[in-house]
Amino acid sequence: MDNLTSPTLADIRAAAARIAPYARVTPVLTASALDARVGASLFFKCEDLQLGGAFKFRGACNAVWSLSDAEARRGVVTHSSGNHGAALALAAKTRGIPAHIVVPEGAVAAKLANIERAGGIIHRCAPTQAAREAECAKVQQATGATLVHPYADARVMAGQGTVVLELLRQVPGLDVVLVPVGGGGLASGCAIALAALAPGVPLWGAEPAGADDAWQSLQRGERVTGVQPDTICDGLRATIGVPNLALLREHRVEVIPVDDAAILSAMRLLWAELKQTIEPSSATVLAAALAQRGRLAGKRVGLVLTGGNVDLDAVQALLTRVRP
């Protein structure tokens, strides 16, 4: 598999074996109070407890350990709002190679601290997709490092797809699986694994209404790139990737936009009922389930909580504005 082709179930299984010495098998939690609110049986896959505090470590680790020795010596580079950058730095550390992380201004402090703690070399840029990509190309040219794209990379998608391999083993008989959608790496990998292992079980994507380029793209039948993100979900502001959109369309992934008020309410509920400090991007899945409770009534639903790297000072102020 190269980094441009779509991964297969075999690639996802190979990724699971490759990352097994480093990644955690994360737990699945339930809460009867949340089941009652949706009228369904909810199973929360807690990737906030993954190494680095987010699911991103799976894809980053698979990419790093897929490199040849010659490639690895030159290091890796990426652009990231935080979680992928921290994950790549951690993964690079397991192989003893440098990781260059291009980070937009305004990134969450907790996520920057994670990158630095993992030994990542930070390069700052303006908070736009174009600026991130330009700075990343500049660093890559200067260092010879291998680009590990946050989501439009088959090695990353294969690693993210291992979430579904674990979830289906932990919770047989699911009727629906819900994941957040930003650039689409997680949704792509999960869609491939789910289609192969549980055909007929739909994958739904939860997306902030203020960054709904994936939803718009699926509605229009073409990739929409002009959306200016306006959402508290810093991890879901990226534009949907080209290969990722194609895979979402191929596997008929339904994207459900949810607004920030609903996301904050869901986040508060998850903190209260699951006792998990999850970030706003993760709460999109519960917000979507609550919005679609009529369609989910009586079903068994898997929901992926993608990360828990929260700026507690900033979130405290937001949470005081909402009540469950």
In short:
This protein is of the alpha/beta class and 324 residues long. It has helices at residues 9-19, 32-38, 56-66, 69-73, 83-95, 109-117, 129-143, 154-170, 185-197, 213-220, 242-250, 260-274, 280-291, 293-296, 312-319, and strands spanning 28-29, 41-46, 76-79, 99-104, 121-125, 146-147, 176-180, 203-208, 254-258, 300-305. It is globular, with a radius of gyration of 18 Å.
Please characterize this protein's 3D structure.
By secondary structure, the chain is of the alpha/beta class. It folds into two domains: 9-55 and 153-319, Rossmann fold (3-Layer(aba) Sandwich), CATH 3.40.50.1100; 56-147, Rossmann fold, CATH 3.40.50. It contains 15 helices and ten strands. Strands 1-2-10-7-8-9 form a six-stranded mixed β-sheet, with helices on both faces. The chain has a four-stranded parallel β-sheet with strand order 5-4-3-6, sandwiched between helices. Helix 1 packs across helix 3 (56-66). The radius of gyration is 18 Å and the shape is globular. The mean pLDDT is 93.
Shape: globular
| Residue windows where pLDDT falls under 50 for at least 5 positions | none
Number of strands: 10
Order of helices and strands: HEHEHHEHEHEHEHEHEHHEHHHEH
Q: Distance N terminus to C terminus?
A: 46 Å
- CATH top level of the largest domain is Alpha Beta
User: Which percent range describes the beta-strand content?
Assistant: 5-15%
Number of domains: 2
Number of helices: 15
CATH fold category name of the largest domain: Rossmann fold
Radius of gyration: 18 Å
CATH architecture of the largest domain: 3-Layer(aba) Sandwich
Mean pLDDT: 93
